[in-house]
Hints:
Elements: H1 2-11, H2 26-31, H3 35-47, H4 50-53, H5 61-70, E1 72-74, E2 78-83, E3 86-91, H6 92-97, H7 103-106
Antiparallel strand pairs: 1-2, 2-3
Amino acid sequence: MFQFDFYHSVMLSRDPVVAKSQWIDWDHVRKQKKPSLDIAIATCQRTGVYRLMELQHRWNSEVIVQFYATLFVEEPRCMHWMLEGQWYSVDYTVFVGHLAISEEELQRDRIHTE
């Protein structure tokens, strides 16, 4: 299985396994006073990912790596991934509901369509 091989040979060989920057401190970004960063902030706000990118949590790096190494999205908007050999699936609306994303934000165009 490609995902299993990729996870073990590529992802786990990194040090650190996941980037140490796990959320964005928007106040710090604004203090840089760079036009390119102002554009990035505006883009994140416009596309609805601003609040998600500042979410702070004690993340488990191995779980994040397993999630991204095995994630695939099946239309209509259903996510599938594997953790510790067990497959999981969730409807997109349920998943983003756990992230406190509003119904209005769900109706925005998908980022990859812009």
